[in-house]
Amino acid sequence: HSAKQIVQVVSNGERVLTGNAMKNVSTLESDDVNKGYSIIVDHKGKIVDLGRDDEICAKYKKEQFEKTLDATGCSVIPGFVDGHTHPVWVGDRVHEFAMKLAGATYMEVHRAGGGIMFTVDRVRRASVDELYTSLKQYAMKMLRCGSTFAEMKSGYGLDAENEIKMLQVINRLIKDEEVPLGVSVTYCGAHAVPKGSTAAEATEDVISNQLPQIKALMDSGDLNVDNIDVFCEQGVFDVDQTKRILEAGVEAGLAINFHGEELHQLNSAEMGAEMKARAISHLEEISDEGITAMAKSGSVGVVLPTTAYILRLSPPPVRKMIEGGMAVALGSDFNPNAHCFSMPLVVHLACVTMHMSMNEALVAATLNAASSLGQSDRIGSLEVGKQADLLVLNSARWEHIVYQFGSHADVIREVIKDGKIV
Ligand code: NIG
Ligand code: FE
Q1: Which of 86, 283, 284 to mutate to test the pocket of ligand 1 (most atoms within 8 A of CB)?
Q2: Sheet of 279-282: strands edge to edge?
Q3: Closest CA to 258 of 241, 246, 270
């Protein structure tokens, strides 16, 4: 691929970038219109070389390349990594959007039996095929928006049978070669308290019933699951219950990646940091102590600009997080409440509403999001040895992907996953 400019998230061997290093985006920008840069990709879809056209031409013979893609005048950035999604569902909640616009809060809708509970009802009644058809469509749309890897949660089943059904649907996507989106699988059986139970009973069911069944399927090679998640929130699961569920998840071999400090400050960030959580999402209400604790533990803060935007909440204190040395990543939070899977829009919102610079947002939406999923040795930046997951942009200045909000389709020319055009 030959492009005028290649935008590198410069990791210097680090798997996650914090503080000032989040500005580490270097653009290999050609001063001469006739000279650009090339990326060489092998048969396995790995980047084997990357550099100036003249250097590459001197090193390799043209005949060595099976295929070339001319990207004159374009720029190339790493594919987006979406650090947080709830994409397995049927039945939208557009009626609730109207209620929320009229002033109802997220928890008011939830307590009235709507919100997550509305989607649980629809998902329990849906077959694996119905859920899969829906997920596959969303996954293709995510790819077209430039996401080459995404975290995907269960959490609309809330019992063993339906949680396993959701995890199987996500697993089927991984096996489906038609959808080349990379996926990290998260079990979120503790996403809400099911009707007719208490939080204490639901905690017991997750720990003693759901998790052992999931673990058995993982052990027999029938199910892939990577992370454990809990919605730690006032009126949902408290900090103690969350901690016990996360411990049981770790016991089952899962990485900690949970929802914390979204609507109320419960000091779940401190708890998560103490458990060396790989990632904690949301953090709108994180305390200064929570920031210090997460910076120290190296837990990645996955911030979700769509949530605060759609619910008219204050966004998380991202400047304080970055200046406090925390690793910050981005996710779309795609779900029936925040119906957005567009990482270009997410980075735009991150810059405008959370005061991130475009460089910081790019790092957060690529390398740091990869790190929040334990994948940053493989993906998240354009480096020799990593997977060739990249976006060819229709503009010589990569910032257009952030700047032209709402029209990413005009900016993304090609999405390339493992070296292949999607
Ligand atoms: O991350 N806060 C909890 N879970 C989701 C919302 C899920 C839903 O409303 O369906 C979130 O915003
Ligand atoms: Fe979420």
Answers
A1: 86
A2: 80-82, 147-153, 182-190, 227-230, 255-260, 279-282, 300-303, 327-330
A3: 246
Half-sphere exposure of residue 60, counting CA atoms within 13 Å on the CB side? Answer: 17
Pocket test for ligand 1, best of 85, 116, 229, 311 (most atoms within 8 A of CB): 116
Q: Round to whole Å and give the CA distance between 365 and 371.
A: 10
Angle (CA) 246-249-255 rounded to 5° is: 85
pLDDT of residue 372: 98
CA 315/CA 318 separation, integer angstroms = 8
Determine the Cα–Cα distance for residues 103 and 200; give it in Å rounded to an integer.
31
Domains with residue ranges and CATH for the chain = 2-79+381-421 (2.30.40.10), 80-372 (3.20.20.140)
Tens of pLDDT, residue by residue over 273-312, are 999 999 999 999 999 999 999 999 999 999 999 999 999 9
> Could you tell me which residues come within 8 angstroms of residue 34 by beta carbon, excluding any fewer than 6 positions away?
none
Distance from C-alpha of 106 to C-alpha of 118, rounded to nearest angstrom: 13
Residue among 341, 405, 419 at smallest CA distance from 144: 341
Q: pLDDT tens, 70-126?
A: 998 899 999 999 999 999 999 999 999 999 999 999 999 988 889 999 999 999 999
Q: Specify whether the CB–CB gap between 228 and 258 falls below 8 A.
A: yes
Distance 158 CA to ligand 2 centre (A): 15
The pLDDT tens digits of the residues spanning 151-166 come to 999 999 999 999 999 9
